[in-house]
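Researcher: Re-running this chain for the archive, since the previous output was lost when a drive failed. Same request as before.
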Amino acid sequence: MLTNKIITKKCVLCGCDFDTEQITFLDRVISFQTHCDPCITIATEKRDIEEQRQKLEQREAEFWAMVPKIYQTTDENQIATQLKKAIKEWKYGPIGLGFKGPSGSQKTRASVLLLHSLHKGGRSVFYLKATNLTKNALEAFSDDKGTKKQALEAIRQATECHVLLLDDIGKGRLSPSAEESLYALLDTRTENMLPTIWTTNADSSQLHDMMSEDRGDAIMRRLVEFSKIITIQ
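Model: Regenerated structure tokens:
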């Protein structure tokens, strides 16, 4: 027979007396509260804070796992004033940012800082080295299920994330499949008003010359019309 009654217990945490319901079954105690309500509230709040801390740590780890290690120690104070101003002034919207300049001009470091800030603010972000477009485009048709799944997931994230960082466009001519992927990626993102941050060492004419006649104009139009372009001297 199941019975219950109110008894007085001593809280195992703070030692205060409190009333609680004791449940018995066939004269055997099967349930009673061991912590007073204030201690339960405090413990619950601590647990929620710890869970939130763990989630934040996991999100941080996931972010830095997709970004090359060389950019993980970037000090904002070492970024050139022009770049620092650009990333601080940019507001989330359909118009992204394009950084053009020579190698070593901190384009990617500034872009990663901005991407990290957006990530911390709750936006979904993705870092994609432009040279990996060829790799993903090819592996999307791989016979290996694991390889294919990983490539398709990278393409999906790059296409659907709130903010994409497309790093180092123009490192040689893209393969036809990679160029097709780049066009599809930019076309879908601009149609859905999702901004792209991109970097390149090449100027506009050099970029265009690296692409085919079929898609070169369309790709360049999407990069130029949907970006505020910062040229680093």
